[in-house]
């Protein structure tokens, strides 16, 4: 033992320390396994099973019925509308704070609020918008009694396509601000100075230099916002109930245990949502990688 090789001893020491190094990430691995991987596997398996456990493709085939296709299409339109408006408004706000010459004290509160608001969803968010823009909401009543504008007569209804889209914007805009602000910070001052020396106007700089560099980040963030809205379940159910035919509400109706419900069709609906959001997230990761290469 006295002649043991130093290399062997060193390798043994590394092996002894390895479990302790993994101990720090063990809670994350356990959480991801219990609440992400195992439920996803249950959904994927259940989508191809009959109620008695046999294999079937009927659940997947049922996704192409007119009512379910319509629900997917409405969900896609709401997700796209909220993602597009969230990107547009969020980018304008982030650019105004980073490049617009606003007081530096505005940036920290805006980012702090964005961090909180981007995670504010579900029943509290639905209640907040019903209390504000619902049929007897504060803003609705104020506009009708004090200004003479009746939102209902103008066709606005919080329990509708645009009502749900506006509600989603509450967390879509802050999420856009959080993600796009570092990308805007990554625009080097030398690029604008070089463009100015070459005679480019501010508009030409944005059109020919800054915007092409930021485009992958913008498109990637839009894909992420789309996935974020498409997978929002609690807010849609709490706000619209059964008045809007979207996928999360159909999914809830299938798995909640009603006599007409079909849990395995619910698994297929959830599998379709995973497929759509998976494509959107893969697109986000790819575009973000391209953006980071530009901004390095």
TrEMBL record:
<feature type="transmembrane region" description="Helical">
    <location>
        <begin position="122"/>
        <end position="143"/>
    </location>
</feature>
<feature type="transmembrane region" description="Helical">
    <location>
        <begin position="204"/>
        <end position="226"/>
    </location>
</feature>
<protein>
    <submittedName>
        <fullName>ABC transporter permease subunit</fullName>
    </submittedName>
</protein>
<dbReference type="GO" id="GO:0005886">
    <property type="term" value="C:plasma membrane"/>
</dbReference>
<dbReference type="GO" id="GO:0055085">
    <property type="term" value="P:transmembrane transport"/>
</dbReference>
<keyword id="KW-0813">Transport</keyword>
<dbReference type="InterPro" id="IPR000515">
    <property type="entry name" value="MetI-like"/>
</dbReference>
<feature type="transmembrane region" description="Helical">
    <location>
        <begin position="155"/>
        <end position="184"/>
    </location>
</feature>
<keyword id="KW-1133">Transmembrane helix</keyword>
<feature type="domain" description="ABC transmembrane type-1">
    <location>
        <begin position="72"/>
        <end position="284"/>
    </location>
</feature>
<feature type="transmembrane region" description="Helical">
    <location>
        <begin position="78"/>
        <end position="102"/>
    </location>
</feature>
<keyword id="KW-0812">Transmembrane</keyword>
<dbReference type="InterPro" id="IPR035906">
    <property type="entry name" value="MetI-like_sf"/>
</dbReference>
<feature type="transmembrane region" description="Helical">
    <location>
        <begin position="265"/>
        <end position="287"/>
    </location>
</feature>
<feature type="transmembrane region" description="Helical">
    <location>
        <begin position="20"/>
        <end position="38"/>
    </location>
</feature>
<feature type="transmembrane region" description="Helical">
    <location>
        <begin position="233"/>
        <end position="253"/>
    </location>
</feature>
<keyword id="KW-1003">Cell membrane</keyword>
<dbReference type="Pfam" id="PF00528">
    <property type="entry name" value="BPD_transp_1"/>
</dbReference>
<keyword id="KW-0472">Membrane</keyword>
<comment type="similarity">
    <text>Belongs to the binding-protein-dependent transport system permease family. CysTW subfamily.</text>
</comment>
């Amino acid at each position: 033992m006295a002649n043991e090789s130093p290399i062997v001893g060193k390798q043994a020491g590394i092996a002894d320390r390895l479990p302790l190094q993994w101990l720090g990430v063990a809670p994350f691995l356990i959480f991801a396994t219990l609440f992400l991987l195992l439920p996803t596997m249950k959904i994927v398996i259940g989508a191809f099973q009959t109620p008695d456990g046999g294999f079937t493709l009927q659940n997947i085939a049922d996704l192409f019925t007119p009512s379910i296709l319509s629900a997917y299409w409405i969900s896609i339109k709401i997700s796209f509308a909220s993602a597009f408006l969230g990107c547009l408004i969020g980018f304008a706000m982030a650019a105004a704070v980073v490049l617009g010459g606003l007081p530096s004290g505005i940036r920290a509160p805006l980012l702090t609020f964005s961090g909180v608001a981007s995670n504010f969803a579900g029943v509290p968010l639905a209640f907040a918008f019903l209390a504000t823009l619902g049929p007897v909401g504060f803003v609705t009543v104020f506009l009708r009694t004090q200004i003479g504008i009746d939102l209902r007569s103008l066709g606005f209804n919080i329990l509708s396509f645009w009502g749900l889209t506006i509600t989603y914007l509450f967390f879509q805009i802050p999420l856009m601000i959080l993600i796009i602000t570092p990308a805007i910070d990554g625009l080097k001052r030398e690029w604008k100075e070089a463009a100015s020396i070459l005679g480019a106007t501010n508009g030409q700089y944005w059109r020919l230099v800054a915007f092409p560099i930021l485009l992958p980040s913008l498109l990637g963030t839009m894909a992420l916002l789309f996935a974020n809205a498409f997978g929002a379940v609690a807010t849609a159910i709490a706000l619209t109930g059964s008045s809007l035919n979207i996928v999360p509400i159909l999914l809830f109706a299938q798995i909640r245990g009603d006599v007409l419900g079909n849990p395995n069709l619910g698994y297929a609906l959830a599998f379709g949502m995973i497929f759509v959001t998976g494509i959107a997230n893969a697109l986000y990761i790819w575009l973000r990688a391209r953006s980071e290469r530009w901004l390095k």
